[in-house]
Specification:
The complex is a heterodimer of chains A (253) and B (481). By secondary structure, chain A is an alpha/beta fold. Chain A contains nine helices and twelve strands. In chain A, helix 3 packs parallel to helix 6 and helix 6 runs parallel beside helix 7. Classes of the chains: A alpha/beta (253), B alpha/beta (481). Chains A and B meet through helix 2, strand 7 and helix 3 of A and helix 10 and helix 11 of B.
Chain lengths: 253, 481
Amino acid sequence: MLKITDLHASIEDKQILQGINLEVNAGEVHAIMGPNGSGKSTLASVLAGREDYEVTNGSISYFEKDLLEFGPEERAREGIFLAFQYPVEIPGVSTTNFLKTALNQVREYRGEKALDAVSFLKLMKEKMKLVEIDQALLSRSLNEGFSGGEKKRNEIFQMAMLEPKLSILDETDSGLDIDALRIVANGVNTLKSKDNATIVVTHYQRLLDYIVPDFVHVLYQGQIVKSGDKSLALELEEKGYDWIKEEVAAHAL
Amino acid sequence: MSKDDQILEEFTSKEYEHGWSVDFEADEAPPGLNEDIIRFISAKKDEPQWLLDWRLNAFRQWKDMVEPKWPNVTYPSIDYQAIKYYSAPKQQKKPDSLDEVDPELLKTFERLGISLQEQKRLTGVAVDAVIDSVSVATTFKESLSELGIIFCSFSEAVKDHPELVKKYMGSVVPSNDNYYAALNSAVFSDGSFCYIPKGVRCPMELSTYFRINAANTGQFERTLIVAEEGSYVSYLEGCTAPMRDENQLHAAVVEIYAEKDAEVKYSTVQNWYPGDKNGKGGIYNFVTKRGICAGNHSKISWTQVETGSAVTWKYPSCILKGDHSVGEFYSVAVTNNFQQADTGTKMIHIGKNTRSRIVSKGISAGKSQNSYRGQVHVMKRAENARNFSQCDSLLMGDKCGAHTFPYIDVENKTAQVEHEATTSKIGEDQIFYCLQRGLDEESAVALIVNGFAKEVMNKLPMEFAVEAQKLLALTLEGSVG
């Protein structure tokens, strides 16, 4: 589904990603871990097509297509979803109205008919259960005055509505208490199928107790320096990131 | 240039939709302004002597007045002798029905999306259409008159209801109120007149559609709305103009008189030609709008969506004279490219327990300047007056300006006056968030802007709300940064 080759990216002339290689197949869950400033969120943003980042080298192929040729809205319509670390507030626009506009533009792109109000509400009701989100919250201005937990749940709710092929969760666990974490993880697990894939960007192993990854990658200084299975995450939790840094330093000598 | 700046550019450079003009034969006055021109206008309209005297008096006052320089706008000085003060589409005689109206004129209104023929059949809105300076057709007149409602052109009102015109004209906006009001009082050529008798609730929206067509012509229309005791009316006003390189002057006066328990709702969607991308051309919109809540428990509510004009100078105001009277002002003002708007309101609390509410949403894009200027004045005997003002500004890009000039004068200790103001910028973050969910850039901007203006848009009558929403998006197309 996704193949990242030797990806280099910079922001304002500062090189952040320095040769990422990663392959993600349908049905897989990949966790990207790493210390602060290692480039995790940059990778998520580059995949979603944020303009602030310049791809200086390398390629990303998505379903055999050159992803870098697509603008952010086309990527979204092609099935890439980013759950934001800091979801943005849009005053005066309800989540319902926002999602209806989004979903119908996505459907139009895919050559499907726009959903009428009734079918849309029906779909919404169904997906609301997944993340135990309240109707009242969806009538309020998007993310405005939402608690940290509500924002993150709203992200997963949107993901459920848009049914992406590749979901990227950027630090979705940050700011969540244990109950909210469980709800969010439950939502993600329910949406998982053999046809879609998930990239979980996280700092802590905590989330991975709930969303069990098939692969764990450690990002450091803009490169994936170590890959493994779930046990790698546990090892990191126990020992911290220093031993990885030392390994990289030793390797460089 | 970043991508967002590009979106902003494209969005802002969208062409003005109503920028065509029509050639119908016009009956015109030569350029220039003097007492003879005023006599010419008055004679053209077959006016009684008292009205001519009223005009001449206004003109003499105007000559001693100076153009206001305090607004936060700049434009080259206007040569008042270069403007034509009268232009009317030539018609053999006043039409008795729509079937007799010049087909070219009807086509003009159809292009504007206002089919006068259709209006006859569609219920909901009665229209008075004013082209250049003259009212060309009023629909639904008969069915309204059954209720005693008078809805006609100002000229007809002068002929058919002189006592009403004499009584109320100038009672809210005196002829020497300000420079442009005095000019209007001297040379106004037509406009709309509306009278709702005691206890009558007007069953449909009344609407006036203004269009400037002829070149080098000023448009000076007057609207007078009188709501008798316990009556209600909702009034809509829309305007467009062709694209011309020269600036054109529009100086209107609107007066509203509300008696005891009466309610008047006045909504405007102002879409005069704003000038081109480089600031060439466009309408100078210098308008005086004021209502008086003369009776107890009366209410006047102004709602405006201002997207057009090169320069706007406009402060729809309420004089809250009756006890327990209520004044409201809801405004969305959008400026783009080189547009300048200095707009707001005045709420003058005179009566006891009077209340006013101001919600102003300014949106600036391109290199435009957008100012809110508002005055809340609580007079000595206005016990327990209440005011709430909220002024929010939204900036798009980094070359535009938003300014807020609130004036608060309180002479009574029991008053409660609240003022809230915010300024925000459409963030790249907001746009990116929308794009990531699959929205295109135009929809993203439209969504964010309409969200920002929602509180005001919700106040518009249904017939106007959809049009206004589209207009908002259109005006700002390409404006993010």
